[in-house]
From TrEMBL:
Pfam families: ABC2_membrane_4 (PF12730). The keyword Transmembrane applies. This is ABC transporter permease. Keywords: Membrane, Transmembrane, Transmembrane helix. The chain crosses the membrane at residues 21-38, 61-81, 102-130, 136-161, 173-201, 221-243.
Length: 249
């Protein structure tokens, strides 16, 4: 298992799509604050307000969409070019192969998801002269939840990338799915109590509350933490099951 993870980590570090996504997000994080300063001025905005209303909300789209592209190239493409067939013929169990791929891919997704909260916030803080910085507890809490919800969505993306063995089809399907599925689930929830419960306890709804953790306590906070963990485990098991049954050509 450790050798498989080292191999996957080596491939991730050499994956061009991964570094391209990293570079684009870093450029956005470093240059976008200039537009804010020139447009509204550096003394009229507090860092915590910008962090909550712009960075975290923008990062919601990053978490749901950008790792889809990485999944297509890092996972799905290995089926189409024959790499996955060679790996499964190496003598390692399919469960070890799948979870090694899932864990390393999740790490890549987490690194992508942390660019806005870390680099974007750092750049904005400098341009805004550290006016109204978020508290360390609030900042650490949002970072922790960002990681949890990223790996939850990553487990879904890894599942879809396993189903679709072509990177183009996988990326296209996942982008559409993660753009519209929460709206569909919300609509179904307004029509049926069962779907309402599913929506209210799903990562699609709860991850929108990451920026509101200052007002969340007790059972709500436990739910906010447990839901992505359960989602990651559930979709990891389901993805492994499908990988076990999959015919790899």
């Amino acid at each position: 298992m450790s050798n498989l993870m080292m191999s996957e980590w080596y491939k991730l570090k050499r994956d061009r799509s991964f570094w391209t996504l990293i570079l684009l997000l870093m450029m956005t994080s470093l240059f976008y604050p200039l537009l804010i300063v020139f447009d509204e001025g550096a003394t009229t905005i507090k860092v915590i307000d910008f962090y909550r209303n712009t960075i975290l909300e923008g990062n919601n789209y990053v978490i749901r969409l950008v790792p889809c592209i990485l999944a297509g190239f890092f996972i799905s493409s290995e089926y189409s070019i024959g790499t996955m067939k060679s790996i499964t013929a190496s003598g390692n169990s399919r469960a070890h192969i799948y979870f090694a791929k899932l864990i390393v891919y999740s790490i890549g997704a987490v690194l992508i998801s942390l660019i806005f909260p870390l680099i974007f916030t750092g750049a904005v803080s400098v341009f805004l002269h550290f006016n109204g910085m978020p508290g360390i507890g609030y900042f650490a809490g949002t970072i922790g939840l960002t990681i949890l919800y990223t790996i939850a969505f990553a487990s879904m993306m890894a599942l879809f990338a396993t189903i679709f063995t072509d990177s183009g089809k996988a990326i296209g399907f996942m982008l559409i799915f993660f753009i519209i599925f929460d709206s569909i689930l919300y609509l179904l929830g307004s029509l049926s109590p069962v779907f309402e419960i599913i929506y209210n306890y799903s990562v699609f709804k709860l991850f929108l509350d990451i920026g509101n953790i200052g007002t969340v306590h007790g059972a709500e906070m436990i739910q906010l933490v447990i839901t992505p963990v359960v989602t990651f485990v559930a979709f990891g098991i389901l993805g492994n099951y499908l990988f076990q049954k999959k015919e790899i050509k």
